[in-house]
Amino acid sequence: xxxxxxxxxxxxxxxxxxxxxxxxxxxxxxxxxxxxxxxxxxxxxxxxxxxxxxxxxxxxxxxxxxxxxxxxxxxxxxxxxxxxxxxxxxxxxxxxxxxxxxxxxxxxxxxxxxxxxxxxxxxxxxxxxxxxxxxxxxxxxxxxxxxxxxxxxxxxxxxxxxxxxxxxxxxxxxxxxxxxxxxxxxxxxxxxxxxxxxxxxxxxxxxx
Length: 208
Prior knowledge:
208 residues, mainly alpha, single chain, 75% helix
């Protein structure tokens, strides 16, 4: 296999030739796909079969934690944006979006949702203390900046040992790139989205 190609892409490229060869075989004979391509397809099918249930459980637990459709929407709106970092990281290191990378994305969704819940919960705690929504959002973003950032950095550093490996590399880069971008979005985009959804305007400075 030439560098830069995955087994799946090679099989797809050879499919017309294999189909033509199979058409010329005697009756009762056929060509079956095997090896890593077959195993990868079976693994992906088994994972995708439980993804709907996984998403349902995640949404249920988030709803129990947040107790608001509005706050649930905020969390769910941030989670897919981690794909920006995933795509950028895989393109940068020229790694395929294969089965292990998809596993990394699924794990990444939980990490992003956790950070978003932490920030939103802090905002609600600030509001419960009697602060205005704008002030509560600013204070929460500032107070949670360090723990969220340090948690993301520690996770990224933990992925470095397996990043150079052939098998686990795509998963590591997916988590690293996605988490870095998602952390920035959580600390910048999520507060902005919060004040937008609640239609909060910046308070005017007191006139002297």
